[in-house]
Amino acid sequence: MHNLSKFTEFPILVTIRMRALSSWFGVLNFFIVLGLRLDSLVHGNWFIILLPLWIIDFFLIVDPVVYLALSLQHNLKCWSFFQFSYKILKVILTVVFKILIALRLEYDMHLELYQILTPLWILLGLLILDVSVLLFKSPPDKDLPLPNSRPMLQYTSLSRIDPAQNNNNDSNKT
Q1: Which terminal residue of the chain, N or C, has fewer Cβ atoms less than 10 Å from its own Cβ?
Q2: How many CA atoms lie within 13 A of 88 on its CB side?
Q3: So where does this one cross the membrane (predicted)?
């Protein structure tokens, strides 16, 4: 068995930075174009308005595919097919949600609100499941003290300062 960190240690750091930067840039572009569209300064197709988000979704699909291909190429057993399909399912649910919103806004289709929001609700349920598994799967940190065993913090509140003390300090300065 090969160690995964041999070929992914540096690229993961670069990928995380680039992923964050490109995501922020894409979301910023989306909000700029959305604001222009809502102010009627731009008259474009809603699928074009959502283009920055489509680009982010494309990279969210490509990333697990490349990671899985690299791990299969180097005979690593770091991901199961279930984890791979689960990541792709979450991205597909977001894409379906965006397609339904764009169809409703662009072509005035008579889609009910629950039909449009169903992929989002499923996605939110999956994200709640992700967070719950991560919380209950990881053991508690033994180095952190329990909340009852921490010493009380000593601080001075502004409301507890004696005004006479402030006046004495001010008179001493002059």
Answers
A1: C
A2: 13
A3: 21-38, 44-68, 88-107, 113-136
